[in-house]
């Protein structure tokens, strides 16, 4: 590809570099960016997250995200995932 040098001008993730060197569509299913490894939020989880947010929003002097993480019924979510989901909602 004569124009591949243009791709070198931009930051790449390890998955993108692997594709560039081994050929596009070379990644197997389940490999690549972290987005594919993060389980999606179900409507039930979103509802529970929203209820917990409204419950702990008014608590003064406390960390809202820490309180939400402590009371999530399904453990395994990270602080970053919870914050991103709250911002998205």
UniProtKB/TrEMBL annotation:
Q: Name one GO molecular function term.
A: DNA binding
InterPro entries xref list: Timeless
Q: Name one GO cellular component term.
A: replication fork protection complex
Q: Name one GO biological process term.
A: DNA replication checkpoint signaling
Task: Give the protein name, as stated in the record.
Answer: TIM protein
Which organism's genome codes for this protein?
Panurus biarmicus (Bearded tit)
This protein's encoding gene: Timeless_2
